[in-house]
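Issue 218. Parser rejects a valid record. Input:
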Amino acid sequence: MVMQVPQFDGVVTPAADVAVDMLFVPVFQDDADASVAGVSGLDAATAGWIGQARASGEFRAKLYEFFIVPATSGWKARRLAFVGAGKRAEITPERLRKIAASCGYTARLRLVTSAAILIRDGFEPLAFASTVADGLSAAEFDSGVYKADQTSEGRFPEQLIVIVPGGDRAALQAAVLRGRVIGDAANQARMLANEPANVLTPREFATRVQAMGVAAGLTVDVLDDTRLRELGMGLLLGVAQGSAEPARLVVLRYEPAGPHAAKTGPVLGLVGKGVTFDTGGISIKPAEGMDRMKDDMAGGAAVAAAVCAIAKLGGPHRVIGVIPMVENMPSGTAIRPGDVLTAANGATVEITNTDAEGRLILADALWYAQQLGATHLIDVATLTGACVVALGKTASGLMGAPDAWVDTIRTVAGRAGDRVWPLPLFDEYREQLKSEIADMINAASGRGAGAITAAWFLREFVTNDRPWAHLDIAGTAWSEERKAYQPKGATGAAVRTLIDLGMTAGA
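Output the parser choked on:
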């Protein structure tokens, strides 16, 4: 949760002239001049401490390693914080963002009121400035908002500055603002996924997303269960019928304006799974780990945050976000294994596992996105444990058709810093979804290829060979351990990919 509204800025003055509580300087393991880390005047500013630490091996500049000393001569910063950046040749936007995030968390834990990061020579300054602002924003998110002690995780700085000496300040400030918008979007998604299910019900989720969309200048429609029945969304309503909470489906529309707006071209349809809590229904989950099922709406949160960010950044392409919202509960009214539901497109589905509910609500939502005019689709969901088995918690699963669109999403994700890995959709996998009494079953039997058969189910609801991709973020939406750049909890997976896609259409 945002603790206060910090001020982000970009300055082009020499680093020595920036008056802040703490100035972060990235240091590479292979910097030629170990004593000053390749930046003039630093050794003198630390009374020789940085040179000694580098020479003795006390500070080796390993990733996320910090060495903090007072600034003693000629520099206006109160403290200098040297942060290890690994080898120069191995720096990537993703790594830089994580380094900046680790700086943000360090500043927060040390109760720093103002901080700055120096962009080193030899890199594209504006792109790196944007990435740094994005990374710094990560530490603004607070997962412990329900703790009595709100200072247990420190305090986020009131002012953060990105330094590019000698650059174009207006261009730098625009780059910092862009990174800030992206980082804030990731935090919004994390905040939603972090909320307990007794707070973030489907109706509350819809209310919050509606408020986000209106604030971003989007057109927002909230479809209640009456409207969903009129549209024949039997899969979405079927999942919801076991809960006292009614279903909702939120539509966010972004129409670009201005001279750079694309008058033709793709209409991106972003669809996100919004299960605010997943017990598994009648096919109930084990008790261990069920508390984390509050994050089963992380895909929907990613879509909401991304569409809002695209609007704030003035993306040139039309974007439609569709988020189905339900709670999957066991009750006397819940769907049962063996039931048959009818989707909005008329297809019938035999329910073999009520814990395979995400694909059901996404199927109706994908159909509706196409009805609204989406020409290119991508859905995001914490969909299958099978994907976690296949890829662990390091990469999200990527599936879709045609191959060119999948390749586009993979390229965009890599550029945005979201790790994805493709899995095949061979025709033989479709055979595992055959039903004796309906058009298909919702969950293939056995454990084999569970992530792939789930994607195949979704593919059945994409018509006219529209480009479509599916991101399974079941393993990446939540971090089970604290890292230098990421506390335990919601990660904001896929947000940056969706923003980049909306801004570039994959170009």
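Fixed in the parser; the record now loads. The chain has two domains: 7-186, 195-504.
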